[in-house]
Amino acid sequence: MFVHWIFLVSSVTLVSSKGIPGRIVGGHTVSIQSVPWQASLLKFGRHWCGAAIYSEDLVITAAHCVRNSFPGIYSVRVGSTFTTVGGQVVRVSQILAHEDFGPSFSNDIAVLQLRTSLKLGSSVRSIPLADSTPKAGSSASVFGWGAIGHEKPTSQSLLEVEVDIVDKQRCLGSYGQVLTKDMICAAAPGKDACSGDSGGPLVSNGSLVGIVSFGMKCAHPDYPGVYADVAQLKPWILGAVQRLQSRKN
Ligand code: ARG
Q: Atom 1 (ligand 1): residue with closest C-alpha?
């Protein structure tokens, strides 16, 4: 009887997971030309995280994507809709992660210096940083090659998902103390970033407003996706950029 029950439950789970549309978490494919600032951060040559192009030799990603590691194991692929082929692949020469990146993912941001400059063009371009945190209800998009659902495979092709900025109080209600002032939340029913999207950009009104950081599972109705708040962290980012540039010369 018990065995039957287990069988029933697992087949229901199988059927329902098949019932979820091919591309999730609620996303659709997008070409790199329409999001030329998107980069894939490779670790040992394989897709590891997302990143956003800040300038021809700097990209921004999440601190948790690069903590405790040597720059030499990372590179970025830019100018390609795919993580495995095309575009330009450039090695990372320096990592500057936020000094106060905490165990609960506060200040989840890092700036990476590239060994050689990217060739900018129609599919490789930088994105400006947001000056202010977008208001609750603003629409935004998040992009990446991450998982198409919780514990699901990743996507070979770049996906976009439209989400709305969530009220901070509501997000505090979901995550409690974990949520710090350097974080911003975004969600929409059945839509979210997921594992492998970390470090990638949340974009609103043409500027970088967030960096994919964490979430409870993916597209969970009670738990929005959490992002590093770029406008809040902008002073740190600009300082990091200066420190990297002065080390280089
Ligand atoms: N921490 C994940 C990563 O390393 C990103 C999770 C984002 N999750 C979410 N539900 N928005 O790729």
A: 214
Indicate the pTM of the whole model. Answer: 0.90
Question: What one-character DSSP code corresponds to residue 35?
Answer: S
- Homologous superfamily of domain range 36-126+232-248: Trypsin-like serine proteases (2.40.10.10)
pLDDT in tens, 183-197: 999 999 999 999 999
The single-letter DSSP state of residue 219 is T
For 42-101, write each residue's pLDDT tens digit: 999 999 999 999 999 999 999 999 987 899 999 999 999 998 999 999 999 999 999 999
4 is catalytic: no
Among the options 57, 108, 182, 229, which is catalytic?
108
> In a 3-state reduction of DSSP, which class is residue 245?
helix
- Give me 168's structure tokens: 């901070």
Q: Compute, in angstroms, the gap from residue 209 CA to the centroid of ligand 1.
A: 16
131 is catalytic: no
Instruction: Output the CA 85–ligand 1 centroid distance in Å.
Output: 23
3 state SS of 168: helix
How far is the CA of 209 from the CAs of 9, 43, 68, 125, 155, in angstroms? 41, 25, 26, 17, 23
pLDDT in tens, 129-181: 999 999 999 999 999 999 888 888 889 899 999 999 999 999 999 999 999 99
CA of 247 to the centre of ligand 1 (A): 32
Domain 3-27+127-231: which CATH class? mainly beta
* Residue 167 a catalytic site member: no
